[in-house]
């Protein structure tokens, strides 16, 4: 990764991972690919198996011109809502790059609050290689974080479902009650907290 601040006349792809789960931070990544090093197999991270994602993440980190990963905490998600928290995570990733891109392409409908020219593109994680790469970095970083959270908060199954509202997770949530990384503003957690069920 380059360490000096320069302007790069290249596109920066940005994407997030973890908007839907009931627990854990939301992650975002920003990537500027090297046009001289084509990375085969880039796609929306959700369409790739774990082994493929991990291998691509390593190749991206080793060969991209620049990349950065950032997050927004559970507390921020509950305070400002998941959409705004996702956009702030994207902003942090862009600003953490060691060089300043001239243009940013972000997956989805919304733009993060940045002064750099930015265009949102629906399904860009499937059509724009830089965004696909960002999707992969964000997803693999968040998955690694949730495996760590599984060790800190055993019994919920975070390593397997990564915080999503699976039947396994909902059963554990009802049995154990919410832990420190559950999103209190998300309906299944909020409803449980408002109920009289003992934990």
Q: Tell me the CATH topology.
A: Nucleotidyltransferase, domain 5
Query: Strand order of the main beta sheet, please?
Result: 3-2-1-4-5
Radius of gyration: 17 Å
What string gives the helices and strands in order? EEHEHHEEHHHHH
- Content of β-strand: 15-25%
Give the class-level CATH name: Alpha Beta
**Number of DSSP helical runs:** 8
Termini separation? 47 Å
What is the number of independent domains?
Answer: 1
CATH superfamily: Ribonuclease H-like superfamily/Ribonuclease H
Shape: globular
Q: Summarize the biggest pleated sheet.
A: 5 strands, mixed
Write down the overall mean pLDDT: 93
Which structural class is indicated by helix and strand composition? Answer: alpha/beta
Annotation, overall tally of beta strands: 5
Summarize the amount of helix as a percent range. Answer: 40-55%
Uncertain residue segments: 1-8
Instruction: Indicate the CATH architecture.
Output: 2-Layer Sandwich
Give a description of the structure.
This protein has helices at 50-63, 74-80, 82-96, 124-127, 129-152, 158-161, 167-176, 187-194, and strands at 7-17, 26-32, 66-72, 100-107, 117-121. The protein has 199 residues and is an alpha/beta fold. The protein has one domain: 2-Layer Sandwich (Nucleotidyltransferase, domain 5), CATH 3.30.420. It is globular, with a radius of gyration of 17 Å.
